[in-house]
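Methods — Computational structure assignment.
A single polypeptide chain was analysed. Its primary sequence is given first, followed by the predicted tertiary structure written as structure tokens.
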Amino acid sequence: MPPGIRARTRARTRARTHATTRVLVRAILALALSPAGPVHAQAPDRRVPMEPTAWPFTAIGRVNVAKGPAHRSHCTGTLVGPRHVLTAAHCLFDDRLDTWVKPHQVFFVAGQARDRNAGTAEVEAFRLAPGIDLRLAMRPHPGGIAAEMIGRDWVILTLRTTLPLKPVPWLVLARADLPKSRPGTVVALAGYAADRPYLPVIDRGCAVRIDAPVPGQLTDTCESMSGESGAPVLVLDADGAAALVGIHTAVTGGERVGRAYRAGRGAGVAAGSFAAALDEMVRK
């Protein structure tokens, strides 16, 4: 074989080898960066879509975060005062920049149902939990959160304008096991999930343990999905009263559904962790 042909053949072989190596590297990185957890056949979904036409669901809405022109996300928030919304802090953290977003990048839409809503407002400021640190270097893995940060994963948004809606009150219940410790009440989780981002879903009739596994945290058996971070864990009374006893911020285990996760067991922040800050900001 002439030298020129051998050289071109070797070059083509090296190119194919390098291309194969790049594909393998991309595949390995994709596996390494995917959220941990097995992919199972989908279990029956307990979540039910609902029209947010009645309180307290008119006070629950989407927290929209614009992290860049093509980098947007949403979580679920609850109006706890005329100008204050409670949600999960990690919703406001930009992993690409390894820092918090600015208030003007956040927007609240209350009671969204497709192209309708109960009110909208820009965010002018927010108050993070003391000591929260979500920098990537502090995380156990991408997309994860350190155990000691779960109880601090809350933020209070201050809206630029007042919304004429009835807020949801918060209720501190130390070491409660609900609904068993409050007979006659129903525990529910309502939020804007990734599979129905413009219409809320609710799991009505789940259970929650307050101050578990440690004070300031909660564990719940409510069905949830990506997008419901910050969703209120509610106790609903037979007489129509409702109160927020914590917020749902994370899941354990779960199953992949497209690019999102659906889980039947969650973790979050008990109301005792943020009640003092809410008392100061809302009830002053």
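Note: The first strand starts at residue 48 and ends at 49.
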